[in-house]
Amino acid sequence: MSTGLIIALIVIVAVVVAVAAVLTLRARGPRHGASLKRRFGPEYERAVARHDGDTKAAERELSARVERHGSLQVRPLEPAERERYEARWTAAQERFVDAPREAVAEADRLIAELAGTRGFPAGGQYEEQVAALSVHHAHHVEGYRRVHRVAQAHPDGAHDGAAGTEEMREAMVEARALFEELVRPSRHDGGHRGAHGDRTDTPAARRDGHRTPSLLHRRQAKES
Question: Could you tell me which of 101, 118, 112 has the C-alpha nearest to residue 172?
Fold first, then answer.
């Protein structure tokens, strides 16, 4: 076999391999993106917006989060810990009526502390903590971001007027969803749940059921 023919065969094989690699990547790309979109939900759209519509860049960022935090082992709460956190959240909600700024700041601190207790990065590493939470609680992590922004935006109480108070109330309501996911017993914790996986028959749950709607949701009730 001549040298020229050998070189031609090598080139052909290299081209075939390259084309196969490109086709494989194209075939995997949409599925990978769809998987990330299903996993992250609204967090996927937020990442795309942060990258000015560049889905590939957004997917690289989300994939990196999964690689860093996907194997994180969440530590179960002891029943006494759960009760303390629930009681503190209820107290923060009740305090909102008279001191909304302090209540929002406490909610921000409480979520950071609870997440750290459950095994996520400590609250002092806010960005990394949020990134880890977004991997495991993608549909509710934005509530934590919002309450953190509001808490940081009103450090001196200068904006406690009507608009500011409404903004803080909405942040508290949205952040509560993540708090409940973090504090809720998993099926391995031995906690009791209702038919839909909700916490039942705990002191904080009973207090919340009878008292908090009249506090944070008062305006919603009036508007309806």
Answer: 101
Q: What is the pLDDT of residues 116-173, one digit of tens each?
A: 999 999 878 999 999 999 999 999 999 999 999 999 885 554 544 445 889 999 999 9
Residue that is last in its domain, among 69, 91, 121: 69
Joined together, the tokens standing for residue 7 give 């070189």
Kindly state the tokens that stand for 74: 């969440």
The predicted-structure confidence for 45-103, as pLDDT tens digits, reads as follows 999 999 999 999 999 999 999 999 999 999 999 999 999 999 999 999 999 999 999 99
* 203, 86 Cβ separation under 8 angstroms: yes
Distances (CA, A) of 41 to 47, 79, 136, 204: 10, 31, 12, 30
* 46 and 86 assigned to the same domain: no
Residue 74 lies in a domain: no
How many residues can be counted in the chain?
Answer: 224
Helices (H), 96-194: 100-117, 126-136, 141-153, 162-183
